[in-house]
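look at this stuff:

>
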Amino acid sequence: MDNNLSHWQKNTFLFLTSQFLTGITSMIVQYAIIWYLTKATGSATVLSFATILGMLPMVLLSPFVGPLVDRWNKKALLIVPDLVAALFAIILSISGTIFHEFPLWLIFVSLLMRSIAQTFQMPTIQAIIPTMVPEKQLTKTNGQLGMVQSANMIIAPAVGAFLFSIIPMKALILLDVLGAAIGTIMIWLWVTIPEHKIIDGALHVLHNTKLGVQQLVNNKGLWYITIIGAVFTLLFMPAASMYPLMTMSYFHGTVGQAGLIEVIYSGGMLAGGAIIGIWGDWKDRMKPVIIAFFAVGIPIGISGLLPGNQTGFWYFVVLNAIAGFATPYFNTLLMAMIQQSYPPHQLGRVLGVLNSLLSLTGPLGLVFAGPLADAIGVEQLFVIAGIGTVLCGIVAIFMPLVRGYDVQLQARRKTLEETIKDD
């Protein structure tokens, strides 16, 4: 028993470490590209378009990626996307060397390809975690994954802002290649990923996608939670895409201060993820999820009312620490509930549909975000996001199927466990 326990713990540690090392280099490059666009153009429309390209593949491809995740080799699904992202980093770096600047169209293509790669990785990671850890450790492990992602978000902006100021952009982009090499070696040589029996029969992507939709819609409580999450994304994503412009244009800050805001927000996320990772075995996980809507929405809404000066910026820092602390609860706890709601061989297609629905409204909001921010001011997007997020929390409170979803889920699982034990 002890040997098995130590094996899964070591395996999970190596997996999380690989995600940390590959994630941090990728995020440094991602931040550098966004800061480059902000500094070079100062346009909310350009920033929102760049963010749309980063989200569009998730919306369009996730439902069809899900069935593939259920069937394909999980290690390949983790490694190949990193190599593709590294290839486009090399192309972008070479173009910067030859032309002494980065054509906007090539930056946009690079962002699009990075997003396509991530579209394959996200449901793969979400689908393999339940196969790597004991079921009772799911919530904690998702919390630990959230901590890894938050740690990346803390370190990457700080390191990225420093490197952005001292290293040519064409060299900084090549960090993606280093991250891909490290991740490939660790996943390929040292991480064990249990593979389920390959599903027999021809792959009918549309059929499997339809099954994923049906399985999600038939689970009414989870379906309503997904709709609320999609509305939240619609209202929140436009403001989230404008953080660099909010700092550098509205508050008249620097690239370093733009990096500081990302560090502070992510530091809050790390603290929130640590709470989940250590004490995450709550009997009703929907309670902290609903509270998180208010803990995110109120500080974000207030941020849009701050004065556009350096005094306002430091209040912005404090408010984002609070919002950051609350952010992991929705994604992390919801993911644990989803993973316990479906058997492992169905998770890929369900997660593909769910990720697509949660991401669908983001680009819709971003289509209007850039022109709207240029017209009424970027700070007003934060007011809209804050009010909308609070309204999502209120709706969740007044929907019994949403409010009581986890209690009912745990009751069903307990009944199933007792039935299996009796048999």
About this structure: The chain has 17 helices and no strands. Residues 2-190+204-422 form a domain with the Growth Hormone; Chain: A; fold (CATH 1.20.1250.20). The CA atoms of residues 24 and 47 lie 21 Å apart.
